[in-house]
Design goal:
The chain is an alpha/beta fold. It contains 17 helices and nine strands. A nine-stranded mixed beta sheet has the order 1-9-8-7-6-5-2-3-4. Helix 1 links the parallel strand 2 and strand 3. Helix 10 packs antiparallel against helix 11.
Length: 333
């Protein structure tokens, strides 16, 4: 069983009198910085001067520093930049300002686990990873609730690294919901696998494949869109509330029987073998190397796939249908 921590397990005094620098004011940065400040901690923000996120931080009442300034001023440095730029920024602007009594923090273990960032031995290295996007971290905190977090300690130089991490989790609201003990390795590999095999990769490909098959068999694209994409939210909400059993309980008997008997024919042994290959590529570091090399040449493959997906028929028909449904709060990229 996983080790869980809650508010009663946290000593917030370990962060009192210490300045926390939140590096990056994007999805997680804006939420974590505001929550920490509202929890009574001393927080400063670093972001690229003149950027949209820097202006947003200023609108939220923060003075925006350079990364180097924030790293020098703070004792707790939380890096919330995109994975592919963390190592360069850290080497240039953060590592020169690290030393005893400082802690380097992350919300994803990618750069530590894959050796892109190598902090000095005389600092704590900690991860607090909320299991939800930044807007949810903020909105749940404002309701008096919180988003569950993961905690991992890579280096405990001070002997207080776990308590520092738990106090930080308390500050962003995570200790209200629960904080689960993990490792940088486990968090990184499971997070990447979940994204690739299911959440961002598997589900999207399944939807596109089903849409293409239905349209090829003469069904109207609008009907296909509703059946395989629009209604996905209804099913995911049931998963979210009560798991797979609750979903099966909530749908019709016909849907449940069809799912039980036909689902394994779609996600079959070949699918499981492909998932195993994806996991192996994550575990052996080949995906990380591939992604970092892609970033070094300005992401040509990613850009091409974005263009392809934007013009896919399911996106074209979806844009038309979503304009007819203002209640879904449509978003277009």
């Amino acid at each position: 069983m996983a080790t869980m921590y809650y508010e009663k397990d946290v000593d917030r005094t370990v962060l009192e009198g210490r300045t926390i620098a939140v590096i990056g004011y994007g999805s997680q940065g804006h939420a974590q910085a505001q929550n920490l400040r509202d929890s009574g901690f001393d927080v400063i923000v670093a972001n690229r001067s003149g950027s949209k996120n820097a202006r947003l931080a200023e609108e939220h009442g923060f003075q925006v520093h350079s990364v180097a300034e924030a790293a020098e001023k703070a004792q707790i440095i939380q890096i919330l930049l995109p994975d592919q730029i963390q190592a360069e920024v850290c080497k240039k602007d953060i590592l020169p300002h690290l030393g005893e009594n400082k802690a380097l923090m992350f919300s994803h273990g990618f750069n530590i686990h894959f050796g892109q960032i190598n902090p000095p031995e005389n600092v704590d290295v900690i991860m607090i990873a909320p299991k939800g996007p930044g807007h949810l971290v903020r909105s749940e905190f404002e309701k008096g609730a919180g988003v569950a977090c993961l905690i991992a300690v890579h280096n405990d130089y001070s002997g207080q690294a776990r308590q520092i991490g738990l106090a930080y989790a308390l500050g962003i609201g995570g200790a209200r919901a629960g904080v689960i003990e993990t490792t940088f390795k486990e968090e990184t590999e499971t997070d990447l696998f979940g994204e690739q095999a299911v959440l961002c990769g598997g589900v999207a490909e399944l939807i596109r494949a089903a849409f293409e098959l239905m349209v090829a068999n003469g069904y109207q694209p609008e009907i296909a869109y509703f059946e395989v994409l629009h209604e996905m939210k209804l099913i995911v909400d049931l998963f979210y509330q009560g798991g797979i059993n609750y979903m099966n309980y909530s749908v019709s008997d016909t849907a449940e029987y069809g799912g039980h008997t036909r689902g394994p024919r779609v996600v079959n042994q070949a699918s499981r073998d492909a998932m195993a290959e994806v996991l192996a590529e994550i575990q052996n570091g080949s995906f990380a190397r591939e992604w970092l090399c892609e970033c070094l040449v300005n992401t040509p493959v990613l850009n091409k796939m974005r263009e392809r997906d934007h013009e896919h028929p399911i996106e074209v028909v979806g844009r038309k249908l979503r304009r007819m449904m203002p209640f879904v709060n449509p978003k277009e990229v």
